[in-house]
Amino acid sequence: MAIYKTKGIVLKARPFDESAKIITIFTIDFGKVNVIAKGAKRPNSKFGGRLEPLNVLELSVAKGRNLDILSQCETIENYSGIKNKHDKLDLAFYFLKVIYKATDDYQQNKNLFRLLVFSLKKLNDGNNLLDSEKYFEVNFLRVEGLFRAGYPPDILIGEHLGEDVRLWKR
Predict the structure, then answer these.
(1) Which residues pair with 7 in a beta bridge?
(2) Taking the CB of residue 7, how many other CB atoms lie within 10 A of it?
(3) Residues ≥6 apart with Cβ < 8 Å to 155
(4) For 75, left (φ over 0), alpha (ψ -120 to 50), or beta?
(5) CA-CA distance, 113 to 120, in Å (whole number)?
(6) Contact (Cβ atoms closer than 8 angstroms) between residue 10 and residue 23
(7) Where do the coiled-coil regions begin and end (predicted)?
(8) pLDDT of residue 66
(9) pLDDT per residue over 99-151, tens digit each?
């Protein structure tokens, strides 16, 4: 099995069977990938609490037939300033959902990855949620080539994704 290493942000985690989880990670090198973390639900798992949404991880992944297999991960950033405040957490999950819906599996987009990291850092460190929200939305539209001055960014994002994203915010 070929092993690849990359850096990524956990977008989503869901149970797979009695002891495993499927983790959706947005990586800098490979875009959005789904990996299986065997044994992740066990109390003494080597992954601990690292596989939660918002965590930025250094990953070692083995290429699998259907799903890649997470072999190791180390936490780079966990954004505790976001996780401790409900309003910041809501906005951070909005960012994650937009990225999740806007990207295809294995579609590398380093600019979108950097935007997500910087937006989460801005949200983690700052107190102005509206600034963080507008920064993410406007720059998301710019990266995707969809920005139009004078139009509400959340409406343009909603048109792009085919859903009303205003419902995702709060």
Answers:
(1) 58
(2) 16
(3) 166
(4) beta
(5) 11
(6) yes
(7) none
(8) 87
(9) 999 999 999 999 999 999 999 999 999 889 999 999 999 999 999 999 999 99
Strands 56-62 and 21-27: unpaired
Tokens at residue 141, please?
Answer: 């539209």
Q: Two tokens at 142?
A: 């710019």
In the block, tokens 């789904």 appear at 34
CA–CA separation, 52 and 14 (whole Å): 10
pLDDT digits (tens, 9 = 90+) for 88-103: 999 999 999 999 999 9
Look at the chain and count its residues: 170
Domains of the chain: 3-77 (2.40.50.140), 80-169 (no CATH)
Place of tokens 């190791």: 72
